[in-house]
Specification:
Distance between the termini: 71 Å
Low-confidence stretches: 223-229, 244-250, 600-640, 654-665, 679-687
Radius of gyration: 28 Å
Largest sheet: 16 strands, parallel
Length: about 675
């Protein structure tokens, strides 16, 4: 566009919209500006206030806190710096600003609010609704895209596209909001799509102000005394805990009853207590997100919501057969309360719900429609089955879910022949399946070392991109079946997924694999080089305490970008560092990273406790315990060991006499083993 006359002049184009930058020069990749780090934010704020002069020591701590609360946005830092330059240089005055950073930014004039309003006004109409809907989540909340997109689809914000599913359209809207700098990406999946994000406090406050102005969303700030007129015209209500230190909020019944009957979405963020009898008043409700509200049993009043499309709740008890009254239901998420029993049943009539797209029911039995007088209906829209227990993949079941894309199932170990019992060999007929997760939970008192190896030689869908196995106990040689999958990109082997101590993969396997996770395995010797994993980018190893080292041949890989380690031997850390040196010295990958989570030897104790809990207590969710400690003081270590022992003795006693009816001698035996394992590593290293 402009001639290069070698005068040294340059033109910098800045924009909040990624497509504008790409249009200016399509052949170049735009430089994305990341938020400033805390130290950079403080340097910019200090320079704006004091220039070249030093900041008084008494104001530095408060000043750094103010800079951190600006969230790394230079514009916010400059605006706050301008305000601080005009107030007294005292701790009281600066503390007043620190307590109201976001509100001061919003009310500071045109510099911030007009810029945000300009970005909002240029949004397409459907993106405006999607943006305002994100106000249902509180500040600093990490929003999962998979959850948000389901709520968008249920609300009907998105236009239908012939060659895309509604979830794909919603994912595109998330990417568009990110390209417009309206959200901050925090996680990406293996395909490079945004998996989770946050909103800057400044943007969230603007979102809430705009949602309130347009009567789009209401977030009540008071628990009682709300006037019905305040809620008479609201279409969406999100209930947040009043204070951070109070996680439980009581919602009186008169509060819910005064809500408009035209309510479209009711979202509760944080643990609340709500009377479910009021749900029946919301005849037009489409989204009911109350997964953090604990119901003792399935709230039957939900069955009167004939317009409901999205239900997420936590309860115990079986799902009633009358759930089929909810003809428009697209998403059903039932999370089990830990205090209840561990197994539940779904009604066979659920096979008649043709609009269902996502079904997640933790540890629930889905009955086989064969043999029951149920009309043969094909679930053309069903994409996700998660959390189901001991699901049998009969031909009758597979014929009803031809377009399923994600399956997550849990099986109870019952000895040899586990795969033939559940007919997993029929999975190869699911040609649209993209993600598969299989977890096997051993019986109480049965440690993984006692589980017999099971053959894993049945065919898997060639369309698989993500495969997660946990507790299946297959020999390492059987991974050849998995390695032959042509499109597999992510493989996670967790918690005794493989039996044996040696792994020698074959060449021309795992050709497209870019992420490999090894966690909680007994692997000792691993032989591989770059030709075995030609596309591998990320290698993650956790709690593999017997692994000697990472194969040195992995250092020759041209694609490997990152190795992450946790709870491994020192020799594994050393081999990862050697691979990093090899990558940098050869110039193949200067940006190669090794992420080591050091635990100062405490991971040996943590690993033992984790294994006992995951393998023995995990089938009882109310007793699950996950430990990850890193202490520097001997006294703290001793106190921690003592606390863990007291808790576990109590847990074993509770599960024995209340839940499992195990003999007291077994309790003493298990506690003794745990005691010996804990102190075997602790006494040698810490005392």
């Amino acid at each position: 566009m402009f001639p290069d006359d070698n005068t040294g002049s340059r033109i910098i184009l800045t924009t909040r919209i990624a497509n504008v930058a790409k249009y200016a020069r399509p052949s170049w990749t735009p430089h994305l500006m990341n938020p400033l780090k805390d130290e950079q934010s403080w340097m910019l704020l200090r320079g704006k206030i004091f220039g070249d002069k030093p900041c008084p020591l008494k104001l530095q701590e408060i000043g750094k806190m103010i800079a951190r609360d600006c969230g790394g946005l230079p514009l916010s830092i400059v605006v706050i710096g301008g305000l601080l330059s005009k107030v007294e240089k005292t701790q009281v005055a600066w503390q007043s600003v620190a307590d109201n950073v976001t509100s001061l930014l919003i009310s500071s004039g045109d510099q911030c609010s007009e810029l945000l309003r300009l970005s909002y006004n240029y949004l397409p109409q459907q993106l405006k609704a999607c943006f305002l809907y994100m106000g249902v989540f509180p500040k600093s909340h990490e929003v999962r895209v998979s959850k948000l997109t389901k709520m968008w689809v249920a609300e009907g914000f998105l236009r239908e596209v012939d060659d895309q599913s509604p979830e794909d359209v919603a994912q595109g809207c998330v990417e568009d909001l990110f390209d417009r700098s309206l959200i901050l990406m925090s996680k990406r999946n293996f395909e490079g799509r945004i998996k989770a994000f946050r909103m800057h406090d400044l943007l969230l406050d603007f979102c809430l102000e705009e949602a309130k102005r347009e009567e789009f969303l209401q977030i009540p700030r008071r628990r009682v005394g709300l006037l019905a007129s305040h809620l008479a015209t609201e279409r969406r209500i999100s209930i947040h805990p009043l204070r951070k230190k109070f996680k439980h909020v009581l919602i009186p019944s008169n509060y819910i009853s005064c809500c408009t009957p035209f309510l479209r979405s009711l979202v509760c963020v944080g643990q609340c207590y709500i009377d479910p009898r009021n749900f029946s008043e919301f005849e037009l409700l489409r989204v009911l997100e109350v997964s953090q509200v604990l119901f003792p049993k399935f709230p039957h009043h939900v069955l009167e919501l004939r317009s409901i499309r999205y239900i997420a709740l936590t309860c115990n008890g079986d799902v009633p057969a009358s759930i089929t009254k909810l003809w428009n239901l697209q998403t059903l998420i039932i999370i089990r309360n830990r205090s209840g029993r561990s197994k539940y049943h779904l009604p066979v009539e659920i096979w008649n719900m043709t609009h269902l797209r996502h079904l997640r029911c933790d540890r629930a039995h889905l009955p086989d429609p064969a043999g029951v007088h149920i009309e043969h209906i094909v679930f053309e829209s069903l994409e996700n089955l998660s959390g189901l227990l001991n699901l049998i993949f009969t031909k009758e079941v597979l014929q009803r879910i031809p377009n399923i894309k994600k399956i997550d199932v849990v099986y109870e170990y019952r000895g040899l022949g586990v795969w033939s019992d559940y007919q997993l060999e029929n999975l190869g007929n699911l040609h649209q399946l993209k993600a598969l997760k299989i977890r096997v939970i051993p019986e109480i008192g049965l440690f993984p070392e006692w589980i017999s190896p099971t053959r894993f030689d049945f065919p898997l869908p060639r369309s698989l991109k993500t495969l997660t196995l946990a507790g299946v106990g297959i020999p390492w040689d059987d991974l050849a079946v998995i390695g032959s999958l042509p499109y597999l990109q992510v493989l996670k082997l967790m918690d005794h997924a493989c039996i044996g101590t040696e792994w020698k993969p074959n060449e021309e396997e795992f050709c497209e694999l870019n992420t490999l996770v090894l966690e909680g395995l007994k692997l000792k010797h691993w032989e591989a080089d770059s030709c075995h994993f030609p596309s591998l980018q990320r290698l993650i190893i956790r709690r593999c305490g017997e692994l000697e080292q990472i194969p040195s041949g992995m250092g020759e890989s041209l694609s490997l970008d990152m190795i992450e380690l946790r709870g491994c031997k020192a020799s594994v850390f050393d081999s990862a560092k050697n691979i990093q040196k090899q990558q940098v010295s050869n110039g193949t990958n200067i940006g190669f990273r090794v992420i080591c989570h050091e635990t100062s030897g405490w991971h040996e104790v943590s690993q033992v406790v984790n294994e006992v809990v995951n393998d023995v207590l995990l089938p009882q969710p109310q007793l699950a315990l996950y430990c990850s400690y890193s202490f520097t003081s001997r006294w703290h270590r001793w106190r921690t060991i003592r606390g863990v022992m007291i808790y576990l003795f109590w847990a074993f006693g509770t599960c024995s006499f209340v839940h499992l009816y195990v003999e007291p001698s077994i309790v003493i035996w298990l506690g003794s083993i745990l005691f010996v394992y804990c102190f075997r590593g602790c006494l040698a290293k810490f005392i």
